[in-house]
Amino acid sequence: MQVKQVSIFLENKKGRLLDALKALARAKINIRALSIADTADYGILRMIVSDVVRAKAALETAGFTVKETEVIAIAVNDQPGGLAKILEVLNNAGLNVEYVYAFAEKQENDAIVVLRTENIELGIKTLTNAKVKILEPKKVYAL
Amino acid sequence: MTDKLIWNPKAECMLPKERELLQLERLQYIVKYAYEKIPYYKRSFDAAKVKPSDIKELKDITKLPFTSKEDIRSAYPFGMFAVPHEEILEIHTSSGTTGKPVVVGYTASDIELWSEVMARALSMAGTTKADWVQNAYGYGLFTGGLGVHYGARKIGASIVPISAGNTKRQLELIKDFGTTILTCTPSYTLYLAEVAGEEGIDLKKSKLKAGVFGAEMWTEKMREEIEKRLHLCALNIYGLTEIIGPGVAQECGEKAGLHLQEDHFLPEVISPETLSPVNEGNKGELVLTTLTREGTPMIRFRTKDITALNRGTCKCGRTTVKMERITGRSDDMMKIRGVIVFPSQIEKALLEIPEIEPHYKIIITRPHQLDELEVQVEASKKMFSDEVRHVEEIKNNIENHIERAIGIRIKVTLVEPKSIQRSEGKARRVFDMRNIK
């Protein structure tokens, strides 16, 4: 049920994000969702891509430090309070959310959100019990 | 591993009393020789009101004036030569990055002396006739290449005179020739290991048994890294152009100090501030006098290298005085907000953190009338995380660790892997951008 996310270290230097995106473009890899965490001197680019293995290889060849992490992709009812309801479930279970970001695409009437909880298995269990729709990795990569 | 091979037991295991007599005899000779042959020494001795005949015992050496790098430079090019150029077989120079280079000349007897001390050094690393010595020090005006070359030739080992650089070729020859002894700068070994990794070459399978590494400062932690990555016994060699080049001192397999060839080079350790001798075993600046050089004899040359000397018979059987690994230079000592910091302290602290790659850069700035010290470290796979919190934690750990080692707060910046320049010779790691007039 866990979706693989690729993250890379971006030095705070002009053109580095572009370099990373170009490396993916050359390998014909589509980015499904992305977010950047930025600090004063570096950033972390996190992405859900169409092909994790090839994306990793392409970025490593281009000289980036790459890390693969597991995250949860969920379908969120696209209306006010949809995401809040889900986060409340995690909050009640005492589970911290490290970060959240959304897909550009929608699936029927649902928005798709990427979640990283501190304990990923427990996160999945808690969400499943609360009947939150968790998306299959295969479906996510092909969105 | 190295064996207990001693190249010249008579000289290296001599009784200390006997050696002192030999040193005094040679010192009296060389002081008189320098005074008579080189106008610079005549002038400087006369100005200090000291005559060669004032040297009656070894400690009288302190009556003589020091010789500095600047003194040699101002005699550029051949003012420090004691013999006519017909007698000179070879010259070497320092890099000359900070002005005119230092020029030294070697007579036939100096080349023989150099070969002898280098044979002693290479023997400490277990080098015999049966070895392949891959010499990756630069050949040329720099003393590293030819110094090792002469020593290996004296032993009768097979030399691969590849010189510096050409990393893929180096790796190919290590593999194809079955190189057993590697000689180069310590920072280059790590670059070799990195490229070996990229090329899929397993250095564990090589025949390398020992390495003689020097020409720049390094630390015990770096030794551990090198030994782990190259699978050999990494030994430290010391030398300098002004004195002869490599071979002034070398570590034996005990790895507990470098045996200084004191039958040829008389060492003293002084306080760089007061210029008086420090007590034995205490740290200070190393001062060397060449006892047997003909071409360019040096009297009380201030090396600027910070070390300490320790006496006593080594487990290897040698009685020569041992100098500690150089921990700094009296001239690359950094003063950060008034606190004295040596780059080697930072390196030592950095390499104690397992996630860190041994490549770093130290940048000193003064943005608001206050010194700032920044250490750039490559974000390796081991320390990188998708969470800012974790990356910040690691950064903080590094900052705290360095602070504990040097006593002041510094800033660590993570940079992308392989973005710090790798060196094939001496690594430049400190960048002082304070621009103080």
Unreliable stretches of chain A: none
Structural class given helices, strands, pairing of chain B?
A: alpha/beta
| CATH superfamily (homologous) name of the largest domain in chain A | VC0802-like
Supply the helix-strand structural class of chain A.
alpha+beta
Shape call of chain A: globular
Overall mean confidence score, pLDDT of chain B: 92
Q: Report on the biggest sheet of chain B.
A: 9 strands, mixed
Oligomer: heterodimer
* CATH fold node name of the largest domain in chain A: VC0802-like
CATH class bucket of the largest domain in chain A: Alpha Beta
Ends distance of chain B: 51 Å
CATH architecture of the largest domain in chain B: 3-Layer(aba) Sandwich
Please give a structural write-up.
The complex is a heterodimer of chains A (143) and B (437). Chain A has 143 residues and is of the alpha+beta class. In chain A, 33% of the residues lie in helices and 41% in strands. Chain A has helices at residues 16-26, 52-61, 82-92, 120-129, 137-141, and strands at 3-11, 31-38, 42-49, 66-77, 97-107, 110-117, 133-134. In chain A, strands 1, 2, 3, 4, 5, 6 and 7 form a seven-stranded antiparallel beta sheet that branches. In chain A, a hairpin with a 2-residue loop joins β5 (97-107) and β6. Chain B is α/β, with parallel strands linked by helices. Chain B is 31% helix and 22% strand. Chain B has a nine-stranded mixed beta sheet with strand order 4-3-5-6-7-8-9-14-13, sandwiched between helices. Chain B has a four-stranded antiparallel beta sheet with strand order 10-11-12-15. The longest helix of chain B is centred in the N-terminal third of the chain and has 22 residues, at 16-37. Classes of the chains: A alpha+beta (143), B alpha/beta (437). At the A-B interface, β1, β3 and β4 of A face α11 and β20 of B.
